[in-house]
Amino acid sequence: MKLAFALILALQVSVCVWAQDWPEPDKELLEKYEGLKAVFLKRLVNAWEKAKDAIQPALESCPTGGQAKEIFEEMRKRPRVESAIKIIGGLASELEPVVDKARMALLGAYGHYLRPYIGEHLDKAITNIKPVLDTVLPHEG
Question: Which residues form the signal peptide (predicted)?
Fold first, then answer.
């Protein structure tokens, strides 16, 4: 009962917060955000691929690496794990509109309230960190 009450209370608070009208982000800010997000995701994917390529030979030569791979494959085949993956995927697809709305609200609030004050400094910081990220986490394979 306490858990149900806490859940209802949390949902009520979240509805109240998101019920108010937030300013819409301007087109230029939205395009800049989408571009930075795409490059960041490319960086993460490339870093994951490099890490996987570096670790995979070590795991294959290690005797416990083969056992770990077999255990992982065995777990993926279990019905409970498959259903959990489906449930998590369904939740992610159901929450996507909420996440998009929250993202637009945050971008709108940033553009309206904070960007006039910190936008130039944040842009300079992003521009200055790009060469470091290109060295450490390149976005092109």
Answer: 1-19
Distance of CA 113 to the CA centre of its chain: 24
Task: Give the pair of three-digit tokens for residue 46.
Answer: 């490339």
Q: Provide the whole-model pTM.
A: 0.70
Residue 25: exposed, middle, or buried by beta-carbon count in 10 A (0-12, 13-18, 19+)?
buried
Query: What is the rounded CA–CA span in Å between residue 131 and residue 101?
Result: 32
Instruction: State how far the alpha carbon of 43 is from the alpha carbons of 21, 46, 131, 132, in Å.
Output: 34, 5, 13, 12
d(CA 106, CA 116): 15
Each residue's pLDDT tens digit, 63-105: 777 777 788 788 878 888 888 888 888 888 888 988 898 899 9
Torsion of CA 94, 98, 103, 106, to 10 degrees: -160
Q: Report the largest interatomic distance among the alpha carbons of the chain, rounded to a whole angstrom.
A: 58
